[in-house]
Write a structure and sequence with these properties.
The complex is a heterodimer of chains A (131) and B (128).
Chain A: H1 26-53, H2 57-65, H3 67-95, H4 99-129
Chain B: H1 19-50, H2 52-63, H3 65-92, H4 99-126
Helix pairs in contact in B: 1-2, 1-3, 3-4
The chains are: A mainly alpha (131), B mainly alpha (128).
Chain lengths: 131, 128
């Protein structure tokens, strides 16, 4: 055998099709889409919440009666909870190595995101439609 | 398994922390903190939807010293994660990878997050 470097690489150094997770760059991409969406959404929400922070309940209700604000709040909830699910998922996948606990944790955050996000969205809708 | 004496990479506490390492770890830490804070935000929304009495109780909780400290941490984490997230988006677009630029943008994010937090709290008290 010659001493020339043998190329040990196989064509598998390149990911084929959608890769091992069968979803390609979907996770990465949605994390970016929600991140970009949150830049304007959260700036509006932060300023609004700062204005509402010192006010009374009537001021909060009045703010959510504005359809534009209610839509911005709902879109913020969607982007925040989706982004949060993707982020927490990566943290769990990085640090939880026992397969059973990992799957249980992933299920738990998925359920928690839908429950808390759904409740937050319902609160906005109640404030918007409420008397 | 561990019988072979291989050279091991030194663990985290051995390194002198470059700012890029601190900002990276802080991004994940603030992300997790924000997830916890979002529960609080959802509770605030729920209290507002439940009516004036619940809202008053929630405001009293958040207005307490502990409540304010949590909100201070939450607001800083939000501004930090927002600014560092924008830094990440620039990297995603292929910009700002050189070490001097990455160091500068790291410090800009740290300073910027503190400035925005102070500004937000000044506004909150001014609008009271």
């Amino acid at each position: 055998m010659s001493n020339a470097k043998v190329n040990m690489r196989t064509p598998l150094k390149k990911v084929r099709h959608l890769g091992a997770a069968k979803e390609g760059v979907q996770h990465w991409w949605i994390q970016r889409v929600t991140a970009i969406a949150m830049i304007p959404l959260l700036l509006i929400m932060v300023v609004s919440v700062l204005k509402l922070a010192g006010g009374d309940h009537a001021a909060v209700v009045a703010a959510f009666k504005n359809p534009l604000f209610a839509v911005i709040a709902l879109l913020s909830i969607l982007a925040v909870f989706w982004h949060m699910k993707l982020g927490l998922q990566v943290v769990i996948e990085d640090y939880v190595h026992s397969e059973g606990l990992k799957i249980a944790s992933l299920l738990a955050i998925t359920f928690a995101i839908f429950i808390v996000g759904g409740a937050a969205a319902l609160s906005v809708l109640k404030l918007f439609f409420g008397a | 398994m561990a019988n072979v004496e291989r050279p091991l990479s030194p663990h985290l506490q051995i390194y002198r922390w470059p700012v890029t390492m601190a900002t990276s770890i802080l991004h994940r830490a603030t992300g997790c903190g924000l997830a916890a804070g979002t529960l609080l935000l959802a509770a605030w929304l729920g209290a507002a939807a439940a009516g004036p009495e619940y809202y008053a109780q929630m405001q009293a909780c958040l207005g307490s010293i502990i409540g304010r400290l949590i909100l201070l941490g939450f607001s800083w984490a939000l501004f930090y994660h927002l600014l560092n997230g924008i830094r990440h988006l620039f990297w995603d677009a292929g910009h700002g990878y050189s070490i001097p630029v990455a160091n500068k943008s790291g410090w800009a994010v740290i300073v910027g997050s503190v400035v925005l937090t102070v500004l937000a709290w000044i506004l909150a008290y001014a609008w009271k």
